[in-house]
Amino acid sequence: MVLVLFETPAGHALFRVLDDAKLANPDDIASYFATPEDAAKNAKLAAFAKFENTADALASATALIEGKISKALKNFLQTELVDAKLADTLAIADAKLASAVSKKLGISVMPVNATVNELFRGIRGQLEALIQGLPAKDMANMALGLSHSLSRYKLKFSPDKVDTMIVQAVGLLDDLDKELNTYAMRVKEWYGWHFPEMAKIIVDNVAYSKIVAAMGFRSNAESTDLSSILPEELEQEVKEAAEISMGTEISDEDLLNIRALCDQVIHLHAYRAQLYAYLTSRMQAIAPNLTALVGELVGARLIAHAGSLMTLAKHPASTVQILGAEKALFRALKAKKDTPKYGLLYHAGLVGQAQGKNKGKIARALAAKASLSIRVDALAEDATPSAQVGLEARVYVEKRLRDLEARGTGRVSGAGFGKKQGKYEKPKQAPRSFNPANDFVPAAGNKNKRKLDEDEEMADTPAAAPEKKRKTEDAPAEDDSSDKKAKKEKKEKKEKKDKKEKKEKKSKE
Length: 509
Fold this sequence. Notes:
Layout: E1 2-7, E2 11-17, H1 29-32, H2 36-42, E3 43-50, H3 54-65, H4 71-82, E4 89-91, H5 95-105, H6 114-125, H7 127-130, H8 136-155, H9 164-192, H10 198-201, H11 205-215, H12 232-243, H13 252-286, H14 288-294, H15 296-306, H16 309-313, H17 317-321, H18 326-335, H19 349-353, H20 359-379, H21 388-409, H22 447-460, H23 464-508
Parallel strand pairs: 1-4
Antiparallel strand pairs: 1-2, 2-3
Helix pairs in contact: 3-8, 9-11, 9-13, 9-15, 11-13, 13-14, 13-15, 14-15, 14-20, 14-21, 20-21
């Protein structure tokens, strides 16, 4: 007898072919399953194992795609065939799965050929009639749910893991910063003709635009309430400067256009704040460990520069360290100069806290930990992402930074670096005492006495120093004579050797 293993979205089915002789000709099999009545006469449902939930169906489907035996299928075949000690032959549509079943369970399997393919085609066409109690509508819903789950599994898709949103958001954030800066500078240049002194008082671009939109002409400064925009000191300073301003007058139409530009600056700033909050939330969901280590803005720029989180995870730590400085790197390699120590990581808070000489070391340590954090974010299978790895890495880099800073402050600079200060030892010889007898003024014209006194003073000084000097002066002469003598002896030995070799040659001849 032949048994047919058929996989459905609802579970595994085992059909028994009632007449094996009808399988002799593959071309006739289709006629045996032309109608539900014909199908019921030729095949019968022997066993059915229903899936508990969609997760079980997905696990079985993925195993079947890879040609492996799932746990549910193994238990089903073990119970229905092996434990029942049936000697029937099993027909399986997948050749890899058939080979695995034959090797692991020891079940006799039909070779995959035209007969098996036609048999499966006939059962698939009359599946609703062969499996009682399973309507076609329910089967279609199960197939739809399983297909969506299988597609998500293949694409590794998760709505919370869409790093494309981060790439677009950080790009838009940079564009907004440029636009805001351009518009704000234009407002200051435009309104500066009317009230030039205010640009020196108000530094913040958004506050400047809000004041222009609220105040209008500088003559309205005294009656305009700016307490919601500025502190009391700056508000008073602006009002005093408006009274003595040297700016020119502008028309109502000019002010209308200036106010329209100010409104653009205010709205763009509000949208930028909203976009930054959105970017922060997305980074916390997609790359929490990287965000905890380098911050959401630097992390988002790293992902955008690499293209995706998965691509960034494939980069080694050395590449992450100089990511964003490719032009400087290739320029340095071409000129055979020192390569850059950091790229986008330069803007990370931990690198910014380090001193100039320690920035490279901290960037290297930060890149190593960031590489690990990125891989955890990209490849972790946890349903709820955690920032534990990133927080631990940040603690390590902060400790490394403190150690480097402490080591740098404890150094001694100059010639005394690395030398220990010796202990003071009292000299063994007593110092020379002053001779008061020598302290006198010689009489004028008494040359002999002056000469005698000089001789006495010379006698008081030690005579070892001149001898030592003379000895050092004579030393080169002695060295020269010894060198000449050695050269002479060497020359004589060479001459003797040459004479001896000549005599030996003559004797041989």
